[in-house]
TrEMBL record:
One of its GO terms (molecular function) is nucleotide binding. It comes from the Bacteria. InterPro entries: Aminoacid_DH-like_N_sf, Glu/Leu/Phe/Val/Trp_DH, Glu/Leu/Phe/Val/Trp_DH_C, Glu/Leu/Phe/Val/Trp_DH_dimer, Glu/Leu/Phe/Val_DH_AS, Glu_DH, NAD(P)-bd_dom_sf, NAD_bind_Glu_DH. It holds the Pfam family ELFV_dehydrog_N. Substrate binds at residues 81, 105, 361. CDD domains: NAD_bind_1_Glu_DH. PROSITE patterns: GLFV_DEHYDROGENASE (PS00074). NAD(+) binds at residues 201, 232. This is Glutamate dehydrogenase. The record marks 157 as: Important for catalysis. The active site is at residue 117. GO terms for biological process: L-glutamate catabolic process. Keywords: NAD, Nucleotide-binding, Oxidoreductase.
Amino acid sequence: MSIQHEIPSYLSSHGIGPWGDYLEQIDRVTPYLGPLARWVETMKRPKRILIVDVPIERDNGTIAHFEGYRVQHNTSRGPGKGGVRFHQDVTLSEVMALSAWMTVKNAAVNVPYGGAKGGIRVDPKTLSPGELQRMTRRYTSEINIIIGPNKDIPAPDVNTNEQIMAWMMDTYSMNQGSTASGVVTGKPISLGGSLGRREATGRGVFVVGCEAAVKRGLDIKGARVAVQGFGNVGGIAARLFSEAGAKVVAVQDHVSTVVRESGLDVVALQEYVLANGSVAGFQGGEEIADRALFWATDCDILIPAALEQQINVDTAHTIRAKIILEGANGPTTPAADDILHDKGVLIVPDVIANAGGVTVSYFEWVQDFSSFFWTEDEINLRLTRIMREAFTSVWQLAEEKKVSLRTAAFIMACTRVLQAREMRGLYP
Ligand code: NAD
């Protein structure tokens, strides 16, 4: 029996941007899903979307309103799971795409979660610490009805961190009347956070990067690395590559680009960014004014670790890297994917490359439930094993089906999600 469907109004106007990219990725994988393709529409529409108004009183006595979202894309395999982004360009379409990529990622690395994501359209740098806290708490109260340790578990993303997670956990707990540490992950260690969580996404990027380098016959020692986005993901990945003997020759953030032929001192750059908010003005390298030149960096490994659609038809042509490790979510458009494929560039897709964060979030959630905490070595060992296994099984599937790693990861993930969907059946 076929499934009849109409396109909901909020989806019809979202065919472009990150959500459009995601839909195209699903279309590309559908021919490989066999009989499960009957259920593929499940992947193309979020299960639940909540749009909330987030009003706060500013320090000067005026009232400001921000638009917030929480999207639960799919919960067939478990509770929703995914980060919260505070950024001036956040849109519903972007959060929908990010939530859908979480569904695919969680299934690709086989952690028992569905996919979700949240965000507020705000530049948090324009808020005082008090305003930031009030906004975070009001947003949490507004989405309180759909989150919970067994329902949907937020985590950090762009411009959110351990402090934001602590406020979210506290706000949710105050509404519940008891401390619910498992409602968010990426918390401070003192509140039930996990050792190794802060570094987990960057570490995962490094682990799959080493696997990819072996496949391409590239020695990490001496390899040239370029990183876009020098925050949690890009900063840690750059540090680990540098510690392994690679040369980080270019770093770009939202303000500037710094380069150094002999390799930047990554630790000094991290300290500089912590103190100054950006790489701009760093004396240990040369600043280049033309941002587009970053993509043409002569490098072996390129790590986009900032925002979506950075590698597009304009930038893809200029890329000289042999390997791209997608630290960011959705950094490469489908058209750019094709260009890079023709150039023989190996892309380790976001849904594998940056899955280290959600993997250790899963460890954190498990530790919170049992109130029993693991050592950092245990965390890193388990993380490394899961990342390597995911990379290897996706690599093997890609060879077997003669498809890209992205398509292979999507085949594996969609199969798991849609099998769960089929086994559960439709209610009623
Ligand atoms: P972050 O806020 O810690 O850092 C973001 C970095 O990107 C900053 O260095 C910022 O300057 C830079 N940036 C922002 N806009 C830019 C632009 N237009 N051009 C160049 N650089 C720009 O965020 P993060 O947690 O490191 O997240 C980065 C990416 O990784 C996002 O795509 C996020 O969804 C993804 N990701 C994060 C995690 C996690 O655990 N934090 C997990 C998986 C994926």
